[in-house]
Design brief:
Layout (H helix, E strand, L loop, with lengths): L2 E4 L4 E8 L6 H8 L5 E11 L4 E11 L3 E10 L1
């Protein structure tokens, strides 16, 4: 299910991988530009495409000056 919007502040933010450890770094750089890419995870309330609101663990990629990209729900809490 796709995340439509993040409703709450992202809590328990944690870096999973950074720099050359990000496996799709070359793809991210091609799509969004060069930056210090990090794969992150955290918990937040999200509104899903069907309109329901759930607390979920989310994963995303981010780089300074570029922002969050490819936000995905990994599992519901």
């Amino acid at each position: 299910m796709q995340v439509r919007e993040i409703l709450s502040e992202i809590r328990n933010r944690e870096v999973i991988a950074k720099g050359s450890s990000v496996k799709i770094r070359k793809r991210l750089e091609k799509l969004y530009g060069h930056g210090n890419w990090r794969k992150m995870k955290g918990c937040a309330e999200v509104r899903l495409s069907d309109g329901s609101v759930r607390l979920a663990e989310i994963h995303w990629f981010e780089a300074h000056g570029i922002g969050k990209r490819n936000i995905k729900v990994k599992h519901y809490l």
